[in-house]
Amino acid sequence: xxxxxxxxxxxxxxxxxGLTGTAGAQDILFWSTQATPVEESQAMRESVLAGFxxxxxxxxxxxxxxxxxxxAELKAGSGAITLIGGLxxxxxxxPDGLVDLAGIVPDGAINKAYLDLGxxxxxxxxxxxxxxxTYVMVANKQALQYLPQGADxxxxxxxxxxxxxxxxAEAAGxxxxxxxxxxxxxxxxxxxxxxxxxxxxxxxxxxxxPEAEAMWTSFRDFWTASVTPASTGYAFxxxxxxxxxxxxxxxxxxxxxxxxxQKPDEFVVFPVPAGPAGRGHMPVxxxxxxxxxxxxxxxxxxxxxxxxxxxxxxxxxxATGFFPVVEVKLPDDVPTSxxxxxxxxxxxxxxxxxLPVLLPMGLGDAGGRYNKVFSDTFQRIVLSGQxxxxxxxxxxxxxxxxxxxxxxxxxxxxxxxQGPCKVQ
Length: 424
Hints:
The protein is of the alpha/beta class. It has two domains: about 5-135 and about 285-335, Periplasmic binding protein-like II (D-Maltodextrin-Binding Protein, domain 2, 3-Layer(aba) Sandwich), CATH 3.40.190.10; about 135-280 and about 335-424, Periplasmic binding protein-like II (D-Maltodextrin-Binding Protein, domain 2), CATH 3.40.190. It has 15 helices and twelve strands. The strands form three sheets. A six-stranded mixed β-sheet has the order 2-1-3-10-4-11. A four-stranded mixed β-sheet has the order 6-7-5-8, with helices on one face. Helix 2 links the parallel strand 1 (about 30) and strand 2. The chain is globular.
């Protein structure tokens, strides 16, 4: 996508949105990259924002136009946007353009680690966490009899998962663990946010480290013995779980919910395993912020407070499938999948060995190439059996070229700093 940056293009974009001339100065415009499907946007308007007390225009945007518009208003020194909602990385692109939101929610209402992320490395609360999603594990209950002796399914290690996988394969006559490793699956997120940090403590800096080399060797053995070859065709793991092709799977919560809603009595949900460096997991954290050019800053602060109330966090969960960032008591009318997933999502982030990993930041339009580095590494080592050290050295060069090209600094849990992140 080409980002238009000329004044004429920006003006044309504003006219096209009907946001110049006829727009009132105090119109409340909630500009967001979240809840973009039509039904989710409508649910946000009718179930969450309608109770605010003042009319709110919820405008869901693609990331490119979202950032272009915000940056244009900040550069101009004024704007029509009242508040914004987006991913952590989107806020990190405009930290100096956001007001301090400290004091809007009570102390202790939101996980401190998430609040710290919202400070974007400053002393101010640049955004407040809004909602979260993540990836978890699901098992068919028939698989539980093959768990290693003494293993706690809610505190598994990758070594125990491997033993479990072998036992299931022997009993069933074929591997019964599955991953979404197909062209439209999210296997790259497993590698970036789960496997790498759990073994190395780092998604990028230790990409080619001795720890990474040992990790890939172990994972290749695990894949051969315990993972169904059909995984290379899976996009959503809910389907093979429902058919019984797979007994144990990892995936995004939104790609597991159909299995849990259709056959809740057949499945259990549990946290992802831990490795030597911790229980790496990738929370998909969204936030709400107020640009310094907000046309109605007091209304914006009031609306942020409204969105963080437990009842509105629940309404947002029903509208989007994302989970609350504040402690809530789930009502009886939420889908079964939410009742099964929510406590596991909370337990995973609160675990003593929890190691949260941010989504990649600062890569811009190179995000796809970044993902491909991990996918190619997986394919070459695990599926093609190539030499681990040789592949890591080569792929590290490709990874470093992307980081250098974009000047992308490291992101947590790698040490956050200035300039391009460096693969050691």
